[in-house]
Amino acid sequence: MSVRGKVLSVENMNPFVKNMEYAVRGPIVIRAGEIEQELSKGLKKNFTDVIRANIGDCHATGQKPLTFLRQVAAICTYPDVLLKDPNFPSDAKDRAQRILDGCGGKSIGAYSDSSGVRVIREDIARYITERDGQASDPDDIFLSTGASDGIKIIMKLLMTGQPGKERAGVMIPIPQYPLYTATIAEYNAYPIGYYLNEDKNWALDVNELKRSIDEAKPNCKPRAIVIINPGNPTGQVLTKENIQDVIKFAKEQNLFIMADEVYQHNVYAKGSEFFSFKKILTEMGPEYNNMELASFMSTSKGYMGECGFRGGYCEVINLDPAVRAMLLKSISAKLCSSISGQAVMGVVVNPPKPGEPSYDIFQKEKSTVLGQLAEKATMVTETFNSIEGITCNEVQGAMYAFPQIKLPQKLLEAAKAKGQAPDAFYCFNLLEETGICVVPGSGFGQVEGTYHFRTTILPPVEKLREMLGRFKDFHLKFMAKYS
Amino acid sequence: MSVRGKVLSVENMNPFVKNMEYAVRGPIVIRAGEIEQELSKGLKKNFTDVIRANIGDCHATGQKPLTFLRQVAAICTYPDVLLKDPNFPSDAKDRAQRILDGCGGKSIGAYSDSSGVRVIREDIARYITERDGQASDPDDIFLSTGASDGIKIIMKLLMTGQPGKERAGVMIPIPQYPLYTATIAEYNAYPIGYYLNEDKNWALDVNELKRSIDEAKPNCKPRAIVIINPGNPTGQVLTKENIQDVIKFAKEQNLFIMADEVYQHNVYAKGSEFFSFKKILTEMGPEYNNMELASFMSTSKGYMGECGFRGGYCEVINLDPAVRAMLLKSISAKLCSSISGQAVMGVVVNPPKPGEPSYDIFQKEKSTVLGQLAEKATMVTETFNSIEGITCNEVQGAMYAFPQIKLPQKLLEAAKAKGQAPDAFYCFNLLEETGICVVPGSGFGQVEGTYHFRTTILPPVEKLREMLGRFKDFHLKFMAKYS
Question: Record's InterPro entries (chains A, B) (predicted)?
Fold first, then answer.
């Protein structure tokens, strides 16, 4: 019998699950929920609401769903009535009918092929082809439960199944989105962290890539490199040249490229442009265009922000056909991703076209969301940089800022006395004093001795302005207290 | 550089993924798809359509979705308009509003808590409490992407992270649903197969449980026992006494109980009744009622058959609180399951009540589906038993029959010459001759030297009758050919 008479204890459970960390939903977020409970019970605080800037959850912070997208999803759900409803536009009905025709029994209640509904994969391939000016094959695409699921599926294939030095090494940016470290821990792989260059707006530096892989080689078998572009939590958008450098490095080191491109619609800064890794790699010609590459996309981000539908896709090119068969087999045990999520992904890649009845309203809703995000990106960058002791790279894309905070010695000592990381100490105090919930930089990784936090730029403009005001007051008082 | 210049080859990929098998979507199903393509191109065959009896995909075989369920899901998807639509009944609107009120920003496009929308978990707890006459706690429940996801999450916790003899052993029935062997292979666990007793209508025999665990103990650390009730692929419904025996055995051997109860609404036979493992274990009193138990449920089966929504839940009781925290953490890296799937699960556990406007139609639709399934269960059992060389236990529940076929020596030799398992050889011939797609027993496991196949009972009554007719003709001719 094990501890306390239970079969399963923390001592004997899966040690790799125990090692996982996922800061975006970590202890600070649990505390935020408790504070909300306290407020709802009438407890008096310096603030009346918690502002959840910890997670890229667009609708939860007030963004409205796109009309066309929800119309198509609703018709797919209840077609017997809504396909005939005169209040629904014809293009929404056409999209829904096209998806339903691709479903077993013409119902989104049927399982799809493991890789997803065929017509949706065809629409995704067409979208990628138009985006990149390079052909895409529906058979290279599978639908996933959000991007997270696709990332885990591909990473799983790359594992060696061996312990210790024989483990697969996976290169990840530092700072990174914690799904990567969590998955690497869960799979007992070896994380090879390469630091993004904060002084160069979080660029990838090839010398740093080389340093990190060389240091890791005695400890693992490096197999893959993860790039997040536009960056999470760092908000940078990679240049074409930077992408070329990474591809050359991956070729040289024989690495599988995992391109997390879920923020491909979220580019705000003048002069910044999204280039997919596939486009650049293909354009680099015969020496590079047969490299293995997986690109991940999601319905949760962009202008649609449909997190709850858990829609996503992965395009994986140049895979050995026998490995591709194994990939399909490994997906098939999960049967398929949610068909309503697939349908939403289908709309994102096949939006209303000029001349269709929903074109104008769709474009208007889309550009409103993206316009506000651009405005908020600027507001956040400028505000943080206006505060003494804080520096923040330009939020060129994605939905986050990752400002650096200079913490005084006395504060470091106070944090140590409390047994907290200094940035966690800072963020917990911020939460208790202002109700603002952000995630400490230590949850994403940072250069030792530097301190950051990640905030989303998602709250509505006025709310965000208020949040930045509350933040600034707190910061100045808090620094004064410890200086 | 690896084989053929690829980073990833079958030789160096994750060996545990390579070992996975998933017969329900295996080679015979791929061939069925090819035949459909051939038919659509006008190729002449002995039949005009493929009957897919390989997978429990209700809507794909013609079952209609339940009106109320789809109304609620549609309103949740497009509430701005449909909450005001006079064509939708008030109880559907109430259910949708209740779910939306529990969502961030009142949108199913927001992430939920990792364990799922709170009000839906409350409704599930109420459903379980009423079903069992035993209290259920919403905090013991998490929503999952179908039942498969929940099963994988719990099994993952139980892994030791050690190789060889230190691996976790998981007891599974033979025959079993292939998700279990696939997941055990993926996690590099050790499968401890216990044979169900075909002579006693697929009952669990405690002596057989003891035999299998004793034989396995030198090879692994047994940690869990999986029971599928009602049975897949075997269609039996366990008696209360049989469940008590299994619980006593699990206690004695210190095993975590994993109860796959996704077919809890699918009980047809006179005298059969569904008892949850939780109910029985709780009623067994202090010696047993603190045992760790996970029960899995799905929207994909029952009378609703909503596979594509990927809704499901897991209730896990008596977990060490520290392990429960680890469980929640491990789910949080996937963020949450699809909210539309959660909403459908919410309707299943909170259907219209007497006096509500949708009560009558809901009851009628539900009882029609279940009545037809009962009729088909009888038809399938009786037809198979009427054919010489075939025996089939009564389909008491679930959606499948698993008949045994006696194969003549000449046929075994012919199969061997083709390099196929005899039952696979049989099923491939059945498919080519009749268009009927069923899954060979070897994909589920069976006593050595016996041969079976699994067929669903899902095709509409008339189609199923036609299928059984085609089947009988084939079987008699095929046996004659090899006798």
Answer: ALAT1/2-like, Aminotransferase_I/II_large, PyrdxlP-dep_Trfase, PyrdxlP-dep_Trfase_major, PyrdxlP-dep_Trfase_small
